[in-house]
Amino acid sequence: MKEGDLVMVSAEATGLGEPMEAIIDKIETFMGQTLVTVTYTRPTALSGLGGCFVDVHITLKEY
Questions:
Q1: Percent of the chain whose pLDDT exceeds 70
Q2: Nearest Cα residue to 14 out of 46, 60, 45, 42
Q3: Cα–Cα distance measured from residue 18 to residue 2, given in angstroms and rounded to the nearest whole number
Q4: Backbone phi, then psi, for 40, in 5-degree steps?
Q5: 2: helix, coil or strand?
Q6: CA 27 to chain centre
Q7: Residue 63 has pLDDT above 80, yes or no
């Protein structure tokens, strides 16, 4: 995973009941956890523009 990759954020992480497609903005490590900041490709009023998630909730989007 690297900045600019197209990914899916799990439904559990978003709390919206469905996974969200996103682009990685930033990857950083904090207290032993890898945090991934993303911007959603199709944001909604409920989802907002994006968020920061632990890497276990992020999967690379397969083409």
A1: 98
A2: 46
A3: 23
A4: -70, 145
A5: coil
A6: 10
A7: no
C-alpha 63/C-alpha 43 separation (Å) is 20
Q: Which of 33, 63, 18 is nearest to 52 (CA)?
A: 33
| Cα separation, 33 vs 16, whole angstroms | 23
- CB atoms near residue 26 (< 10 Å): 11
Instruction: Check if the beta carbon of residue 42 is closer than 8 Å to that of residue 21.
Output: yes
Q: pLDDT per residue over 12-37, tens digit each?
A: 999 999 999 999 999 999 999 999 99
What DSSP assignment string belongs to 26-58? EEEEETTEEEEEEEEEEEETTTEEEEEEEGGGE
